[in-house]
Amino acid sequence: MNERPCIVAIGAHAADMEFTAGATLLKHARNGWDAHIIHLTLGEKGNPHLSPDEYGAQKRREAEAAAQILQVTPHFLPYRDGELTVSDDIARELAKWLRRLRPQVVITHWRDSIHSDHTATYFLVRRALFLAANPHF
Length: 137
Description:
There is one protein chain. By secondary structure, this protein is α/β, with parallel strands linked by helices. The protein has one domain: 3-Layer(aba) Sandwich (Rossmann fold). The protein has helices at residues 16-30, 52-70, 88-101, 116-133, and strands spanning 6-13, 34-41, 73-76, 105-107. A 4-stranded parallel sheet has the order 3-2-1-4.
């Protein structure tokens, strides 16, 4: 088991946590922490001129490039932009990641964001933390 402390940022879309927590993640990584970003979606529906597949591929490349700069490990989950719901299925998937990474610090979206994917992510992370901490789930 890794003995280094761990920080994890969980975002609804690729680029959310890079902008929200990038400096904090880099500071921790430079101080010897394992740093990770978990992207629930790629944010693939956010470009009016590119198809979701084209834009999703671009967003993934950008997130991977940003991860190198920020010294974090990126993780990409398979959910769709604009379609996140607060469900135990998604929360259980996040709980698996939290058990695997064992973070001391978790960063996510503000619960009162105007974007429904952001607020869903906030509640999913809260539920996943509960599930991950309880060995009976």
